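thought: fold this chain, then report.
action: predict
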Amino acid sequence: MRYLATYLIYIAVIARAIGWNQETAPIPTAIWILLAIFGVILFSQRALTHRFPLYPRLYTLIQSVLVITMLYLAPTIDFLTMLFLPLSFQAVQFFHKGIGFAWIGGFILAMAGMILFGMEWEAGLTMVLTGGGANLLMGSFAHLITRTEQRRQENQRLFSNLQEAYHQLKDSATQAEQLAAATERHRLVRELHDSLTQTLFSMNLAVQAAQLSLGEAPLQVDDHLIRLQTLARNAASEVQALTGQAPHHSLPQGGLASAIRQLAEERLAQDGLKVTFEVSGQRVLSRLVEANLFRITQEALNNITRHAGIQQALVRLYLDSPIASLEVEDEGCGFELASSRHLNGFGLTGMAERASEIGWVLEIKSCPGQGTHIYLAEKVT
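observation:
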């Protein structure tokens, strides 16, 4: 559309030149030559602009020089100033705003100079005012279009960034869902390890004891089977809790201290492990902290039953100081802490993960033949 408007202005100038009164003020041959050159450059602009991105600036400069030259060759032919209109638009469009309007100022001065070269001052003044206003209007319109295009491009860029952010957020949400699922699976595995391992171990011992009793003490078989049935019910309850039928951070009534006492009684009844439990203070911890401390204690006692080769353990819970702490000790065979097999074999990785989840510090000390000491405490902030 912009090219069409420029073409129409040029055609209008040519038509006006053809109808010009050649008798009173003949148009010099040089003007016709310059108009022809102007037309050739005009109609080739579109093709050359696509090939040479910087060509529009050169085009504006050449065409401006041609028009100013024609004005001073024929200062009384005022319709030639119409060619300034598209050039004013292009000057602001192709150059910086300040340069473009300075360019228009040069056009206005060129029109004013026509008065000095032969145009009557009344007609010249009218031409300068109307022509200057029209050229400034074209420049302002070009500036408005340029700003609109810049804002459109900026909006397009922001929209593209928004789309990219949306896709990234969507991908992050998918990854978060996958991570949450993986975390939940890991939690279930850890809970199964912590809660069912010792129960299954005790069930295996009960089965072995029942098998031995068949030949040596048949009357004790019923006792072993009753114990096995109790262990199976406990295992079923644990599985129900892990599958969501009970919250995984729930504890028996009475809180952590009561839960550890109950655990000590179960260990004594099931495995013959005598657990001495000492507690000081009555500070109330969060349910999540208590649940994880209980699971760590449970896993530590499981390790003592299976690996320590001893039937005594000591558990201390300190709730009377600003920094709560928990200790589990035994004087069993101990182990080499640096050996990586103990991290998974003794559930130490799960202990460390639980301690990290609740913001507690876990320290494990053990040496072969010197027992094991597990210490947990709140992090000092």
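thought: worth noting. The CA atoms of residues 240 and 353 lie 23 Å apart.
final: tokens above.
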